[in-house]
Amino acid sequence: MNDYSSIIDHPHYQSKKRPHMSMLSRAAQFAPFAALSGYDEAVNETQRLTEEKVILGEDAVKDIDNTLRYAALSHKPVSITYFLPDPLKRGGSYMTVSGVIYKVDMNEDVVIMEDGSAILLYSITDAVVLK
Q1: Which pTM does this prediction carry?
Q2: Residues 6 or more apart from 70 whose CB is under 8 A from it?
């Protein structure tokens, strides 16, 4: 067993050449660091949920086509739900936009809204004419 009785009453040593370190600076030396850079981002990306795209039947596709044609010709506002693929992982998310259709471009397979946004026809899963 060590007996510190010979040094217990001595004053704490302080260097005459170097300034005393602040408690904040001293604590920073022992702060945790990211040993695996990018690990937190990878975990968060894995936890982020995506949905699978629903494959529509022929009848549903015809109903959407008829709704889009009617909304475009009558200039009535329409609510369109479409699938937006995730650029980083499998799956994606469903988005819904509302507005008036400016044009349905069959050559480009896209619906162009009056606000300038474009929606790919094959990604549309639902369309409802609003009153």
Answers
A1: 0.65
A2: 76, 129
Is the alpha carbon torsion for 13, 18, 22, 23 positive or negative? negative
CA 19 to CA 4: how far, in whole Å?
A: 28
User: What is d(CA 84, CA 73) in angstroms, rounded to the nearest whole number?
Assistant: 26
DSSP secondary structure letter of residue 85: E
* Residue 43: band (very low, low, confident or very high) from pLDDT cuts 50, 70, 90: confident
Residue 51 DSSP one-character state: B
The span from the CA of 93 to the CA of 126, in Å, is 14
Q: Locate 105 and state its tokens.
A: 């471009």
Six token digits for residue 69: 């044609």
Phi and psi based region of residue 116 (left: phi greater than 0; alpha: psi -120 to 50; beta: remaining): left
When computed from its CA atoms, the radius of gyration of the chain, rounded to whole angstroms, is 32
Alpha helices in 38-115 (DSSP H): 39-47, 58-74
